[in-house]
Amino acid sequence: MSAIESCRTAALGGHVARCEDCAHTIIAYNSCRNRHCPKCQGAAARTWMEQREAELLPVPYFHVVFTLPAPIGDIAYTNKAVIYDLLLKASAETMLTIAADPKHLGARIAITSVLHTWGSAMMHHPHVHMIVPGGGLSPDGERWIAASSNFFLPVLVLSKLFRRLMLQKLVAAHKAGKLTFFGDHAHLAEEEAFAGLLAPLKKTRWLVYSKRPFAGPKAVLAYLSRYTHRVAISSRRLIAADANSVTFKVKDYRIEGPGRYTTMTLDVAELIRRFLLHVLPKGFHRIRNYGLLAGTAKAEMVAKARDLLAVPTTEPEADQDVATEHVAQCPCCGGRMAVIETFAPGCQPQHRPTTATAPIRIDTS
Fold it and tell me: Is the four-CA dihedral 194, 196, 199, 201 of positive or negative sign?
């Protein structure tokens, strides 16, 4: 929270820029670059998207969502690193296994997985979003096997395998002593009690959802930009705030039509509590690649797929001169903005902006 509170303020330092043509002056405060900060993820998402563009294939892309049942989501509060990791691995293994089955697709597929842990109201809701091209390489790597244009893999089959794999991995983690339990869940440290928690889940259907394919590769990038670096609540959802409460937009996914959009007001302390539920363990990777996109062979596999699909290899753009890259433009005349002063964290700049309006805060991440 301290990083987010300090983001783009004098606490982190910054620089002063002045237009070389009209002398218009602005103050730009540094960003915190914290991956949970809603203000700092825009630049990170754009950079990530640019790196992924060369990996896109000219085929339909499907969006598949794997969701954990509430009882398992509850124990993830104190076992984030373990259970989130198992969720990502079990869902990927499910997709790779069913896709490789000759009864379904019979191919090696590519997966980009993104972990989300929240719903619209910021309650704890662990689930994985997957973006998957509609097809894959044949087992011998010599053919591209295309999926149906409107159907990828049967969700009932995916659900059953995902349930079995996740339960197996949870039991193994419990036996290995990797799970910890506190408060109302302390009794689950006993093997029999933990087995009792999982028993009913073996008989229920686990939610796996497959959406219709995207309109094309560009639509995939646009979609990924909204999901890959999203945090529990974005600034655009905020409507009003005062010293006691915050009002923000929410969406009820169970309702179709305009009625699904409404607002919610929470006490400031409750809003912060819900936000902090979704802070990930240090070093945890919430965006992962599997199948053809995994490991050091990714470039080779993508090139192979593009060759089989008769798509020219994308050449990297020539390096630009660093001195002329991303040059800021003057908001008044469009001229070049030059840095005339830098100031350290906690200090105030000696120069002042040319107008009495609030300083323009530029993301320097």
Answer: negative
Average pLDDT for consecutive 10-residue bins of the chain (365 residues)? 71 88 88 68 66 80 93 92 97 97 95 88 88 93 89 93 97 96 94 96 93 72 67 78 89 76 89 84 90 90 90 53 52 88 88 64 49
Question: Which regions of the chain does DSSP assign to beta strands (E)?
Answer: 14-19, 25-29, 61-67, 110-118, 124-133, 135-137, 144-146, 208-211, 238-241, 245-251, 261-267, 287-291, 337-343
- 177-201 in b/e burial notation, b at 16+ Cβ within 10 A? eebebeeebeebeeeeebeebbeeb
24 dihedral zone (left: phi>0; alpha: psi -120 to 50; beta): beta
> What sign does the CA torsion over 152, 157, 160, 162 have?
negative
Centroid of chain to Cα 94? 20
Amino acid identity for residue 118 in this structure: W
Dist CA 273 CA 246 (whole Å): 13
What's the pLDDT score for residue 121? 83
CA dihedral over 241, 246, 252, 255, signed as positive or negative? negative
Is residue 226 packed enough to be buried (19+ CB in 10 Å), middle (13-18) or exposed (0-12)?
exposed
Whether 294 and 115 have beta carbons less than 8 Å apart is answered as no
Q: Read off the tokens for 136.
A: 């894959």
φ and ψ at 258, to 5 degrees? Answer: -60, -25
- Specify the long-range contacts of residues 250-253, CB closer than 8 Å, at least 24 apart: 250/120, 250/121, 251/120, 252/120, 253/119, 253/120
Can you give the pLDDT at residue 310? 85
The whole-angstrom separation of Cα 304 and Cα 57 is: 11
Query: Could you write out the DSSP letters of every residue in 103-140?
Result: TTT-SB-EEEEEEEEE-TT--EEEEEEEEEESEEE-TT
Residue 85: the pLDDT is 97
Put residue 27 in one of left, alpha, beta given phi > 0 → left and psi -120 to 50 → alpha.
Answer: beta
3 state SS of 249: strand
Token representation of residue 197: 């928690």
With contact defined as beta carbons under 8 Å apart, do 216 and 57 qualify? no
- Asked if residue 343 lies in contact with residue 15, where contact means CB atoms within 8 angstroms, the answer is yes
What's the confidence (pLDDT) of residue 356? Answer: 45
